[in-house]
Amino acid sequence: MAPSPTPWPVATPTVGELPAPAYTLTAVYDDARHTLSALEEIAYTNRSGEPISEMLLVVDASVFPGVFRLHTLESVQGPAVTGTAWERIWLHVSLDRPLAPGEAIRLKLDYELILPARIADASLRPMVFGWSERQINLVDWYPYVPPYQPGQGWLTHPPGFYGEHQAYEASDFTVNLQVVHASAELVVAASAPERREGEWRHYELLQARTFALSLSPLYQTVTRQAGGATVTGYFFPAHRVAGEAAVQTAAEALELFGDLFAPYPRETLAVVEADFLDGMEYDGLFFLSNGFYNLYSGAPGDYLIALAAHETAHQWWYGLVGNDQALEPWLDEALCTYSEKLYYESRHPEALSWWWEVRVRYYQPRGFVDDSIYNPHGEAQAYRAYRDAVYLNGAIFLDRLRQQVGDEAFFAFLKDYAGRFSTRIATGKDFFTVLRAHSMADLSALLREYFQSAP
Ligand SMILES: [Zn+2]
Question: Ligand 1 centre and the CA of 183: distance in Å?
Answer without folding.
Answer: 34
